[in-house]
Design brief:
The complex is a heterodimer of chains A (about 450) and B (about 475).
Chain A: H1 7-21, E1 27-43, E2 46-64, E3 67-74, H2 79-96, E4 114-119, H3 126-136, E5 141-157, E6 162-177, E7 183-190, H4 195-211, E8 222-228, H5 230-240, H6 247-251, H7 258-261, E9 273-275, E10 295-299, E11 302-303, H8 310-316, E12 331-334, H9 344-348, E13 351-354, E14 357-364, E15 369-374, E16 378-382, E17 385-389, E18 394-398, H10 399-405, E19 407-418, E20 430-443
Parallel strand pairs in A: 4-6, 8-13, 12-20
Antiparallel strand pairs in A: 1-2, 1-5, 2-3, 5-6, 6-7, 8-20, 9-10, 9-12, 10-11, 13-16, 14-15, 15-18, 16-17, 19-20
Helix pairs in contact in A: 1-2
Chain B: H1 5-13, E1 21-37, E2 40-41, E3 45-58, E4 61-67, H2 72-89, E5 106-110, H3 121-133, E6 141-159, E7 164-181, E8 186-192, E9 198-199, H4 202-208, H5 214-226, E10 233-239, H6 241-253, H7 258-261, E11 291-293, E12 316-320, E13 323-324, H8 331-337, E14 345-346, E15 355-356, E16 361-363, H9 370-375, E17 379-391, E18 397-409, E19 412-417, E20 421-425, H10 426-429, E21 433-436, E22 443-452, E23 457-465, E24 468-476
Classes of the chains: A alpha+beta (about 450), B alpha+beta (about 475).
């Protein structure tokens, strides 16, 4: 299972054909997404479902006389078939453009930038991985999902820009369930599978599982001190990234952070958040053909950069900075604090230790007020010691409270969380986050 | 239509394998998404996608391989990858499917009005442009967008047991939203979008009510901007169909999915507060609650003849007079549990395997008009159009928010309120159902955005529901 080294050559064949086929003054951009993935689902520590998926698509934009349209085409992997599909697609777009008005917000990048990033760490053998997981999980109720394989992303334009990103990766996202229904969530992900590394990660999750054996505590709604582990904080950041930093959302008043960007609200000075593309797992160029910049989204609690795609740049007079079409971050990097990991329980004193949150949404979006559930390994702590797992609870609180007036500390250690998302294709986004100690979290149900 | 069928059938017949059973599911999908935002046409987004999934059963173990290469060699290679995978996982396989029955059905299924050509791209843009232009000029109206998504799907399922199932469908998603802003707060009112989609042709746009809706939707956004927050406290709650669909989806649909009950989804989508032993005995809701899996309403989003494992679909009651009687489980889940289920094994495309999904999940109409429903409420609130959804992983504790609220006092609709939210617990909430609207209050709705599964899948589901009244629900507003 591999994307052949000739994959980039395959893309170049399509690009070269297109460069010959377009007629002045036509222009084009061509993006490329491919992956070959092994997928294995586990339930009760056994393989529930296993398979392999091979897919490749191109995204062709044709521009002529200020008009443009996009067409996504699934490729077959066979050159003559794919050139024929590309030719048919080009023809479809040529017939479409005259039907459209000129687009006042069309902004093309005419730079002939070049970018190449190829990472070819050998992938683990799926059979061996399955055997290691099955062995580690013997006697346990493990449920999880292993996804692995190469991915590649490409971009080219009629202006001569060319970008190529190729990487091998794996992500084993799993939970260990206690017989009382409580569970610990963990993941082991990266480029190079290490049996020792996996065993250590698994052991850590298994140790946490032991705390879940204690009798469950049910809390009444109210306000509690709480520690949000990095994975829990990631859920909150994920909600704020849902249009939060998007230039279009901010301008059209649908951003949950519109009050931050208007200067009417602020987070704690402890909060600094970057979109740090350099060194991340995601491509250094956007699907619409702009090199992506590192950005300072929140600086000591105050609004910083916005994510600006080309349409927003044209519409609002901003500078495009390589944001994707949805203007969402994909390489979050939050500044660390000074709370040592070893001091978390002591500093928490009495309150909730929350490993994960789940299914967040807005109670009042313009106010950045969020609701969501605890899930997996949430503990009641008294005087710095874990007492009992806590039954599932709902919180409802403003982000300006949780990461503002009520934020006591961020941890000195941060955790790199690689997205296990596989909607349409394997996701390459990541988040490097600390944990957060908050003096008040409102539980409602 | 089905122009690839003869070649596909030929190639399927030429496949060689040592598997005791194998199937091929070919999917070809084309789509276009058009929108006009603030009177400016956005560039159209078009798509063409095709590929196939090969599934094999070797010594009772199933595995799949999906491929974009539809040549004879490409299909053969995928079949061999699947077969190799099945052999490799045999020592660790959870299930022995040696005795699971397979389908040998042969049938065709078509969306209604499929032969009628859809409006041209120019005509579609003209419609969207006219609707956008109908939004009144008001400096508080800061953003609005009118959109139309159209997807054509052809699917062919072939199996070594002789199954030959073809489906050709067209899905239409009209939408409009308007955002109003007063310098501090913003409020959005919408029509369609995430809450509406149907099978059919231009008739879907009419049924959505998109044409001529611009001024009213804009006016309602402005009304919300001026409205007070929803007051906090217990009230009787009248949910309109465009919120009922979300309520059904999250707190009946997902908890009744048999693969969740079996634990497959515990690492991602979650589990269920319902147990396999509850079917036939659990009083899920009040006697007024009748819930069906219904693939026979032609325009509803998830109507079909057979599911993606080849099982024939038919209408079934899941909850009858409040009693839980049947789960949402396809052939595999039925084999695993011994429970009778429904034909709901579905995949979102050629590159994802079928799993238990809810398809069309509907509430059967009752006998009260909307006026009677409102007239029967002393101290309550009407909520319409979902905008926020959150529920725990067992699908029990929920909190939902709507765009539009109107207080009800002494049987009469009163003032508009903004940020209407409510919360409850599924296991108790449906028992508080105390009035169900008649067919005149029912709307056939649906969403293309139901997420579940590992690997992740987002799929279309249909929900038809009347307006319904629930007693004594905890409602509240926002901060602004």
């Amino acid at each position: 299972m591999s994307i052949s080294k000739s994959q980039v050559e395959t893309f170049k064949v399509l690009v070269n054909w297109l460069r010959d086929a377009v007629r002045e003054p036509e222009q084009f951009t061509l993006s490329y997404d491919a992956e070959s993935s092994a997928f294995v689902r586990f339930n009760h520590a056994k393989v529930r479902q296993a398979g392999q998926v091979q897919q490749a698509t191109i995204g062709l934009k044709l521009i002529d006389d200020g008009r443009h349209a996009d067409l996504h085409i699934t490729l077959s992997g066979e050159q003559s078939t794919d050139l024929q599909r590309l030719a048919e697609g080009l023809q479809q777009l040529r017939e479409t453009l005259p039907l459209l008005p000129q687009d006042p917000y069309l902004l093309l990048n005419h730079d002939d930038w070049q970018s190449q990033n190829v990472q070819e760490y050998p992938l683990p053998d799926t059979e061996q991985v399955v055997a290691e997981i099955a062995q580690a999980a013997e006697g346990l109720d493990l449920v999880g999902f292993y996804a692995a394989g190469p991915i590649s992303r490409g971009f080219a334009s009629s202006s001569g820009a060319f970008g190529w990103h190729q990487a091998n990766s794996f992500n084993f996202d799993f939970s260990l369930f206690h017989e009382n229904g409580e569970a610990v969530k963990a993941s082991y992900a990266g480029h190079a599978w290490s049996s020792e590394g996996f065993a250590a990660r698994f052991r850590q999750a298994r140790e946490q599982l032991e705390f879940l054996a204690r009798p469950l505590r049910t809390l009444p709604p109210g306000q509690y001190r709480a520690y949000l582990a990095p994975a829990a904080l990631e859920e909150i950041m994920g909600m704020l990234c849902w249009g939060g930093f998007s230039a279009q959302s901010i301008a059209s008043k649908s951003s949950p952070l519109q009050k931050l960007y208007a200067g009417d609200q602020a987070f704690s000075p402890l909060v600094t958040l970057d979109e740090k593309v350099s060194g991340s797992l995601s491509p250094a160029f956007s699907g619409e053909g702009y090199p992506r910049s590192d950005l300072r989204l929140i600086i000591e609690g105050k609004a910083g950069d916005q994510l600006v795609g080309s349409r927003s740049a044209a519409e609002y007079g901003l500078t495009a900075n390589g944001a994707s079409g949805g203007e969402s971050p994909s390489a979050l990097n939050m500044g660390a604090g000074d709370l040592p990991q070893a001091e978390i329980l002591k500093q928490l004193g009495t309150g909730l230790y929350i490993s994960n949150l789940w299914y967040l949404n807005f109670s009042d979006q313009p106010a950045a007020r969020l609701t969501g559930m605890t899930r997996f390994a949430t503990f009641w702590v008294e005087n710095g010691e874990i007492q009992a797992p806590v039954s599932t609870m709902r919180f409802d609180d403003s982000a300006y409270s949780l990461l503002g007036s009520q934020l006591e500390a961020l941890t000195a250690e941060r955790e790199l969380l690689l997205s296990p998302s596989t909607y349409s294709q394997r996701n390459t986004s990541s988040a490097l986050l600390p944990g957060a100690l908050v003096s008040r979290l409102t539980l409602t149900l | 239509m089905f122009d690839f069928h003869p070649r596909l059938k030929q190639r399927f017949a030429a496949l060689r394998t040592g598997a005791e059973f194998f199937s091929l599911r070919y999917v070809r999908e084309s789509g276009q998404y058009l929108s006009v935002r603030k009177n400016v046409a956005e560039p159209p987004s078009l798509s063409r996608d095709e590929g196939a999934m090969l599934t094999v059963r070797v010594n009772g173990v199933e595995a799949y391989a999906a491929t974009n290469d539809l040549s004879q060699q490409g299909l053969q290679a995928a079949l061999e990858r699947a077969e190799q995978q099945a052999r490799r996982i045999k020592p660790h396989a959870l299930l022995d499917l040696s005795h699971q029955p397979v389908s040998g059905d042969r049938a065709d299924y078509f969306s209604p009005n499929l032969q009628q050509p859809f409006a041209s791209l120019s005509e579609c843009f003209e419609l969207l442009g006219a609707e956008s232009a109908s939004v009144p000029k008001d400096e508080r109206l800061v953003n609005w967008e009118v959109s139309l998504g159209i997807t054509h799907v052809e699917q062919i399922y072939l199996s070594s047991a002789g199954a030959e199932l073809r489906q050709a469908q067209r899905f239409v998603y009209p939408g409009l939203d308007v955002t109003a802003y007063d310098g501090s707060d913003s409020q959005t009112r919408s029509l369609g979008r995430e809450n509406f989609g149907q099978q059919g042709g231009a008739d879907v746009i009419s049924r959505c009510g998109l044409i001529g809706a611009g001024p009213q939707v804009a006016d309602q956004a402005l009304q919300l901007l001026l409205a007070p927050n929803t007051p906090q406290g217990p009230r009787d709650l009248l949910l309109m169909p465009d919120q009922m669909m979300l309520q059904i989806h999250e707190s009946i649909g997902h908890p009744l999915e048999l693969d969740r009950i079996l634990g497959d989804e515990r690492n991602y989508a979650g589990t269920s507060f319902v147990k396999a032993s509850d079917f036939g005995s659990l009083q899920y809701g009040s006697k007024l609650l009748n819930v069906t899996f219904d693939p026979d309403i032609p325009e509803e989003l998830a109507s079909y003849g057979h599911d993606d494992d080849g099982s024939k679909a038919s209408k079934q009651f899941l909850i009858r007079e409040g009693l839980l009687v049947r789960p949402l489980g396809g052939a595999l889940s039925q084999f695993r549990t011994g429970l009778d289920g429904v034909a709901n094994s579905r995949a979102c495309g050629w590159n994802r395997p079928p799993i238990d999904r809810m398809a069309n999940l509907n509430i059967e109409p009752g006998d009260q008009s909307l006026e009677q429903l409102i007239g029967g409420i002393e101290h309550g609130i009407l909520m319409s159009t979902n905008r926020s959804w959150s529920i725990d992983d067992a699908r029990n504790k929920f909190q939902f928010g709507c765009e539009w609220g109107q207080l009800i006092e002494n049987g009469e609709l009163k003032g508009v309120v903004k940020n209407p939210n409510y919360r409850g617990i599924s296991a108790h909430f449906w028992k508080s159902l105390r009035a169900v609207g008649n067919a005149g209050t029912t709307r056939v709705l649906g969403t293309p955005n139901c997420g579940k599964g590992e690997p992740n899948q987002v799929i279309r589901v249909g929900h038809a529901s009347p307006a319904c009244v629930f007693s004594n629900v905890d409602v509240f507003g926002g901060d602004a």
